[in-house]
């Protein structure tokens, strides 16, 4: 019997290199992103995939290309994640202003995280493009695939992985004990920024996993994006597409080598869903309103964020989805 941890929509995006005007292949790509939006939740997760490619699936063989790391770079409402995909502008000391085009959609479909053979699996079924084209082939995105997926213990150093560490609450950190990797028995392990995952290729055919992934994804509607504003050749035809949107002064935060694409500090401090999520980093759920406010103050949240939390209803908050819903009602 298959035990599902969660199901939902999966979207793939690639971010062009800084100042890139033409995208001929993977050498013109800065990073590959994967977005997971779980069913019945108001929270989405934006991941960056190491080496800009999903790992190869080489059954019966051992290869360094059959495994790759993936890191949570942002958690927020689906629309917050959509806003993080817009063009970016950099101010550098040596080269002045530099621009980086929008993250370009290159795949959409449905996914499932489930338990199988003493491991956790991430499987997806692509709905667009059908069939996948050159862009998907270079990025390692197949029509369907499954991977063994594990979470890295942030207290254990693993060579080749980013230095960033998630601020897990004690209840989640205790799950690791002294293990380097653990399975995903609790989807909250994926929710924290800088959470790091290991993907190992498993199957190219979902029949091997004996699971059924149903439903239809809608990338633009779910992430609050206007289709006419975004290049769609990669998503619809499988061809690499060039950025076409105008940069509006959004500034990235973080180390570009690790895929940082978050908006500037002001955006993080704003009393938006993303700002609230950042302010509550490390909160031990469930908790009540005073518990949320205390955590935000411990994280030195902006006064505007604290003011929003003070307007929350006085009740227990079981998940971050409950918190996001409260933000929507207050704002």
Set down the secondary structure blueprint.
Layout: E1 3-16, E2 29-38, E3 44-49, E4 67-76, H1 78-83, E5 88-92, E6 96-100, E7 104-116, E8 119-128, H2 134-139, E9 144-152, H3 170-173, E10 181-182, E11 196-203, H4 219-223, H5 233-237, H6 265-269, H7 273-279, E12 287-288, H8 289-298, H9 303-310, E13 316-317, H10 320-330
What characterizes the major β-sheet? Answer: 8 strands, antiparallel, barrel
The chain-level structural class is alpha+beta
Principal-axis shape equals globular
Strand order of the largest sheet: 1-2-3-4-11-9-8-7
Order of helices and strands: EEEEHEEEEHEHEEHHHHEHHEH
Strand composition percent? 25-35%
Helix share of residues? Answer: 10-25%
Describe this structure in words.
By secondary structure, the protein is an alpha+beta fold. The chain is 20% helix and 29% strand. It is built from ten helices and 13 strands. It has helices at residues 78-83, 134-139, 170-173, 219-223, 233-237, 265-269, 273-279, 289-298, 303-310, 320-330; strands at 3-16, 29-38, 44-49, 67-76, 88-92, 96-100, 104-116, 119-128, 144-152, 181-182, 196-203, 287-288, 316-317. The strands form three sheets. The protein has an eight-stranded antiparallel beta barrel with strand order 1-2-3-4-11-9-8-7. A two-stranded antiparallel sheet has the order 5-6. Strand 7 and strand 8 form a beta hairpin. Helix 8 (289-298) packs antiparallel against helix 9 (303-310). It is globular. Mean pLDDT is 86; it is low at 253-270.
